[in-house]
Design goal:
The structure is a homotrimer of 383-residue chains. With 383 residues, chain A is mainly beta. The first copy, chain A, has two domains: 153 residues, Cupredoxins -  blue copper proteins (Immunoglobulin-like, Sandwich); 161 residues, Sandwich (Immunoglobulin-like). Chain A is built from nine helices and 21 strands. In chain A, strands 6-4-1-2-11-10 form a six-stranded mixed beta sheet. A six-stranded mixed beta sheet of chain A has the order 12-9-14-19-16-17, with no helix packed on it. In chain A, strands 13-21-20-15-18 form a five-stranded mixed beta sheet. In chain A, strand 1 and strand 2 form a beta hairpin. Chains in contact: A-B, A-C, B-C. At the A-B interface, strand 1, strand 2, helix 5, strand 7 and helix 6 of A face helix 1, helix 2, helix 3, strand 17 and strand 18 of B.
Chain lengths: 383, 383, 383
C-alpha cells in the first residue's frame, strides 16, 4: 500500500470545501444554486428529538403539521357533494416577503384524494382565470389557472360515472379543457373559448387511473407551462385494497425575473427544457415543510400525474420500495417490488407502499438534475 | 372574500398578451419560436363547418386529404411484391419556396403499413445515398438516407420470414445497416462499407414488434441524426385482431442555418440535445395538414419506432386512450387503458386505439418542450 | 426520372466531408467532440483477422482481454467471504499521461457479479473517502467515493439475507448511505455523519432486483454526481435460470477543466444536464477496449443500475434482442422480445440475452445524444 508518487489533489482541495457543514452549504449556495434539503431526515448530522419536518415548518412559519388545510368548495354553482379538493384562498391576506405581491398568501396544496360522491353524476364548473400563486416564501408566480390555483382542483370519480363539465373563460387569452379521462371528439369538446364564453361537455370515464387534465389551446406548451393542469382520479368499480390515498401532480416551472414582485412564466425558457423548479402539487418542497402523515401498517396509494410539460417523473420513496405499481388501468398489470419507476409527461400512474416501518420517508423524483429543484416531500409514518 | 391589499399583476399584464388571438400568436412568433397549431380542432375558436385539417391542407397547397400518395417500388431489382412503402419522388420537380432548392418537392410520408408479401422471403436492396428532402414548405434538409428519403422505406414481414438484405453505398462517407429485428453478428453483418461497395446478410426475425433500423457507423449519433433510420415491422405468426395499421417513426432534427437554400445536419447541435424539429415520419406536423383517416368502429394499430437519437416519445392520442399497449413482443405483455406511454430512443412499441367515437383526434408526443416542435398529427375518425 | 432544375447541394458538400474515412473522423474530432468508436465491429471497413477489441486493447496498453482483473477484498475488517467485488488499486503506481496525476492508474472495473456468500449474513464496512480515479487514458477525476472507487463495490445477497452495514466517513464533508434495497427509517439509518464518525444499520432485502445505493446527503445531486453510488444485487430465493451474470452501473460525469492534472466534479454543470461522459461502471468505453466475454449458448444476465443522476439508460444490445426484461422484482413481470428498454435514473432492472449466435455485440445506451459519450461496451460471444 506504499505509493512513491505524489498524491493527486482531492476533490475537496479543488473545490475548497470547508470542513464545517454550514459553511459548506453556504459556499454551495454561493454557486447561485438552490440547495433544497433532500430528505431532511437524511441530512441531519446531530441527534435531535424534534423532527426535521417540524423544525422546517416552524422555521418558515408554515402551519402546524396536523392543522387541517382549508377545504373550500370551489364551484358554488355546481353540486359539490364530492370530488373537488381545496382552492387557493386568494383573498386571505398575509404578509409576504415579496414587495408588491403581499396579497398572495402561501397555502399548502392538500394532497389527500377527496372522497367519492354519493352520486354517479359529477357536475363541474371550472373557470379559466389568471391568478398569482405564492409557490414559496420568496416566489409568487403570475399564472394561468383553472379555479385560481395550480394545479387545479382534484377531481375524483369512478369508472362509468358521468362527468358534466363546463369551462368558462374569464381570461383575455383563449383557453380550453382536455381531460385525458374522456373519450370524446376533441375538436368539439376541447375547443378553445374566448373571454366570457363557455364550453360544456359530458363524458363517462372508461378506464381507472390517474389522468391529467390541461388546457389544450395552442401553443399547448405555454398553456400547460403557465399553470393550466390538474388531476382527475378515476377509481375502478371494484375497490382497490383499503389505503390512504394521495394525489401528486409533478410540474415544471420556467420563470422570468420578478416584475412588481411577481415572476411570469417564460415561454422561451420552456423550450430550453431547463426548469427553475420542479414540484409536487405546484410548490417546491412543500411536503418537506409540512409532510404527508400516515400511520404504521397503512397502505399508501399515490395517484401520480406528471403534467410535465417535458421531463419524466422518476418516482421513488427513500427507505421504501413500491409494493405495487399499476402499469395498466388499476388493478391491471400490477408489478411488484420496484424501487423507482418513471411516469411520462402527460401520463399518470398509481403507486402503492406498505408502510409497515415507522419513520420519515422522503418521496422524490430521482432524476436529480431536475428533481432536486423541488420535487421532494416527506411521508411520515407514525407509530 | 375581501382583500384590502393591492392585487398583484396578472400574467397577461406581465407579458402584454393582446386580447386578439391572431395578434397574440403573432407576438408569440416574435419570440422566435415556431408555434405549431396543436390539434387544429382543439384550438379553433369559431364555429366552422370545414375541418381544420382541410383548411390547413388547402392553405398550404398540400394534396387533397383523400388523394393517394405516390407508392413507388423503391428497389426495382428486388422482388417487390410486398414490404416496401413509398420512396421520395426526387425527380418530380415542383416549385419550392427556398431559392436554390426548388428541385426538391414536398411529399407526405405515407404512414400506412404496407401489406405482407405472399412469399416468406423478402429480398431488399437498399442504397445509402445523399439526398435533399423537403420536410416542410420552408425547410429543405441535406440528408444521409436509405433510398433517398427519411425515414427510409417501411419494411413489413412476419416472425420467421427470411430477409435477404443488401446495402450498397453510393455516398462518399462509409455507411452500414443495423436492423434491430436481426439476431446476427454485428461485426460482420453491420460493418461499414465505402462508396461503391456492398454488404449483404440474411436474417429471420425472432420476435414481433416495431423495430428500428439505422446506420450504425461511428459516430452513430451523426448517422442517425442525419437521416439514416427507418422501421421494420414484424407481425406475429398468429395475426393480431383486425385493425387499420400505421407506422410512425419519431425523429429529431438538429440543423444548421440554410446554405444555398438547404440546411445541413449539425452534429454539435445534436450533442446539445435541443432539436429544431421533432417529427413523425420526418416532416413536422405533416399529419395536421393531411391527417390519417379511418372509419368509426375500426381498431387502429400504431407501430411506433422512436429513432431518437436522444429523446423519448411520450405517445398520446388526444380525446382517446390506448385500449392496448404491448410492452413485450405483440401480443405479449399487453397493458390496457393507458393515456400516455413513453417509447425509448432506439426502441419501438405497438399501440392500439378503438375508434368507437367519430372526431378529429390529435396524436402527439406529450413531452411538449420537444414534442411541440412537430411531432403532432391528427387521426380523423369518420362516421 | 429527369430533373430539369439544378440539384440542391448534398450534406457532404455542406460539411465538406472528406472521402477518406480517417480524414473524416479527424475532421469530426476537430468539432471538439469525442467520437467513440461505437461498435468497433460495426465500423471497421477493412477485413482483419484480429478482433477490433483486441486491437483497441493493445493500442491503449490495456491488459490482455483474458487476463484476470485484480480482485481485492476491500474491507479487511469485515467478513469478506462474499459479496464484494474489486477495489481500485490506488497505490499501484503506473505512468499516466496527465502530469501530476501519475499516481493514479487505470483499472478496468470488473463487471462480473460476485458469488453469493455461504452465510446468510453479510457484514459490510464501507468508508466514504476522497480519491482520484483514472477513468480513461487522459482523464483523472477527483471523486467522493465509497471504498476509493466509483462505482463503489458490488454487493450481492439474496432476498431475506441480513445485511449488517457500517459507514465510516473519512472525508471532510458529511456523507451518508442510502440502500434502495433496504426498507428502513431513512431519518435514522441514512443519516449523515461527519469526518471520523460512523453509522451502522441492518436490513433484510425484501425484493429481488438490481438496486442502487448512494450517498443521500444534501445536495444529493452533488453527492451522486461526484461518485458516491454503486449496486446491490439481490437474487431471488428461487434461483433464476443459470446464466453468466454481470453488473452495469450507468452514471454521468460533469467535470471542470483539469487542475493539477485532475478534473473536479462540477455542480453547476450537473444542473445543466449536459454531461461530459456517460459510462458503464465509471469509465467511458472501457468494455470496448476490454470486452465482456461469454461462450455461445450461454444466457447472459445484466443487472443494470442507473445511478443517473439525471438521464435514463436506454439499454440495447446491437445484433441481439432481450429474451427477457423483468419489470418487477425478478422473476416477476417478465416481458419478452424487447429491443430497447429504458431504466430510470435511481432505478434498476434485470435483462437477459440468449447468446446463441457467436460474434461481437455492442451494448449501448441508445439515447445517443448522451449515450455516445461513453456508455458503450462489447459483449463477445465466443464459439
Amino acid at each position: 500500500m506504499t505509493d512513491p508518487l505524489p498524491q493527486p489533489p482531492r476533490l475537496s482541495d479543488l473545490i475548497t470545501v470547508p470542513t464545517d457543514r454550514r459553511a459548506f452549504l453556504a459556499k454551495a449556495s454561493a454557486f447561485g444554486i438552490a440547495l433544497p434539503a433532500l430528505a431532511a431526515g437524511c441530512s441531519r448530522t446531530e441527534p435531535d428529538a424534534r423532527s426535521a419536518a417540524d423544525k422546517a415548518a416552524s422555521a418558515t412559519g408554515a402551519s402546524a403539521p396536523h392543522a387541517s388545510p382549508t377545504h373550500l368548495p370551489s364551484n358554488p354553482d355546481s353540486r359539490l357533494d364530492s370530488s373537488l379538493n381545496h382552492v387557493a384562498p386568494l383573498s386571505s391576506a398575509a404578509p409576504g416577503t415579496v414587495p408588491g405581491a403581499q396579497a398572495t398568501a402561501f397555502h399548502r396544496y392538500d394532497p389527500a384524494l377527496p372522497p367519492l360522491s354519493s352520486s354517479s353524476t359529477l357536475k363541474l364548473h371550472f373557470h379559466a382565470r389568471e391568478a398569482s400563486v405564492r409557490i414559496s416564501d420568496d416566489t409568487v408566480v403570475a399564472a394561468w389557472t383553472f379555479e385560481g390555483d395550480l394545479p387545479g382542483p382534484i377531481v375524483h370519480c369512478r369508472v362509468g360515472d358521468t362527468v358534466e363539465f363546463t369551462l368558462t373563460n374569464e381570461s383575455a387569452v383563449p383557453h380550453s379543457m382536455d381531460f385525458h379521462a374522456a373519450q370524446i371528439d376533441p375538436k368539439q369538446a376541447f375547443r378553445s373559448v374566448v373571454k366570457g364564453a363557455s364550453v360544456s361537455y359530458t363524458f363517462k370515464p372508461k378506464y381507472a387511473g390517474a389522468f391529467m387534465y390541461h388546457c389544450g389551446t395552442a401553443p399547448v406548451l405555454m398553456h400547460i407551462g403557465s399553470g393550466m393542469y390538474g388531476a382527475i382520479i378515476v377509481s375502478p368499480r371494484e375497490p382497490l385494497p383499503a389505503a390512504r390515498e394521495f394525489v401528486l401532480v409533478q410540474s415544471e416551472f420556467y420563470l422570468s425575473d420578478a416584475s412588481q414582485g411577481v415572476r411570469a412564466f417564460d415561454y422561451p425558457k420552456m423550450l430550453s427544457t431547463l426548469p427553475d423548479f420542479v414540484t409536487f402539487n405546484g410548490r417546491p418542497n412543500q411536503y418537506i415543510k409540512d409532510p404527508i402523515r400516515v400511520k404504521v401498517g397503512e397502505r399508501v396509494r399515490f395517484w401520480l400525474v406528471n403534467a410535465g410539460p417535458t421531463h419524466p417523473c422518476n418516482f421513488h420513496v427513500v427507505g421504501e420500495q413500491f409494493d405495487t405499481v399499476y402499469l395498466g388501468a388499476p388493478p391491471g398489470s400490477a408489478i411488484r417490488g420496484v424501487q423507482t419507476w418513471d411516469v411520462a409527461p402527460g401520463g399518470g400512474m398509481c403507486f402503492e407502499v406498505l408502510c409497515d416501518v415507522p419513520g420519515e420517508f422522503p418521496f422524490v423524483n430521482h432524476g436529480f438534475g431536475h428533481g432536486q429543484k423541488g420535487s421532494i416531500g416527506i411521508l411520515v409514518v407514525e407509530s
